[in-house]
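Support case: S-adenosylmethionine complex. Customer-provided input:
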Amino acid sequence: MSIQTKVDQIIKNLGSISIQDFIEISNFDSEGFYNAENDDKISIKGHFITSPEITPLFGYTVCNQFLEKFPNPKKVHLLELGPGNGTLTQDVINFLRSHHISISQITLIEKSIYFQKKLAAKFSNKVNIYESPSQIDQKNDEILFIYSNEFFDAIGSKQFIYKKGAFYEIAITKDQNLYKLIYQHSLLSDFLKEYYCSYDFKDGDILEHSNLIINILEEIKINLNGSFFFSATDYGYKKISKKNSLRLISNHEKVNFFEQFENVDYSFGVNFELINSFFINFKPIISTQKDLINNFLPKQFQNTNNEETLKAIELIKGKKFDDMGGSFYNISFYKK
Ligand SMILES: C[S@@+](CC[C@H](N)C(=O)[O-])C[C@H]1O[C@@H](n2cnc3c(N)ncnc32)[C@H](O)[C@@H]1O
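Agent response - structure generated as follows:
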């Protein structure tokens, strides 16, 4: 059944569907963007491209960022959040092995059944593939190296509009065969006013609040008992944006809401302020992706004359990662 038919059925039965539910269905239903069998998703031939799919230099940079804090790690447990094709983990493995660093375990947290199968085939079942960070099993002698690229921006978020002292949840309904957005009274309004009390919301401001991201951050936090290094790169903002940050991409082009329902990737700008506050005890550092590359790309690639390499570096430092009203940022923190 098509995504549009499923959405229509929900609207017919319940009157409306929340933005978060709509996006979770569009991304993760069996026919949704990340699960449909029919497609090359993250590649030049697919719908969008990511830094690890452009060049292994992105993965090498993240490894170098890790090695700066843990110069001689004995046993490293790799943990990638949302690996998709698994390219970043393959690059990390190659880089660490070339530095004679022992990898004791590889854990991949991947929700898409399509990608789970692809990862099991790619790594010949030598990896743990889980759906949730709560399943991580770090041994006492391991350093947990957690990394992700464009993971948090693929997770659904609720959207609320602020009006006259209350937050109303934004939902989708259908009126005379046309889709439209409506604002519904929400039981979460008082909770949200308390949770975001340090911000000054004005009428018409949008709040994006993802309980799904908060659950994942909580699961990660519970597991940070031993030594670890965490590095996440994502599209988002450093200060809460109070705007709609939802992006729709299909065939490498932006599409408008309701323009098409099938083969669309939906993503939200990530609230780095929230991630920062979650892990504040570990004193996180937030930098732009450009600075991440400038600071941690291994020296031998910074000093290269090779045109291909220079082009790849420019791409992952470049405009693609610094437009559409936001930027790509990296957040990192660790405990020894
Ligand atoms: C935008 S893609 C990025 C893939 C890859 N990291 C890259 O850079 O090419 C987002 C990935 O996160 C996965 N994902 C999204 N939400 C997830 C969740 N709640 N748990 C686990 N994986 C999730 C998706 O299935 C997809 O593989």
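Residues 34, 42, 50, 52-53, 82-84, 88, 109-112, 115, 149-151, 154-155 surround S-adenosylmethionine (CB under 6 Å).

Case will auto-close in a few days if no follow-up is received.
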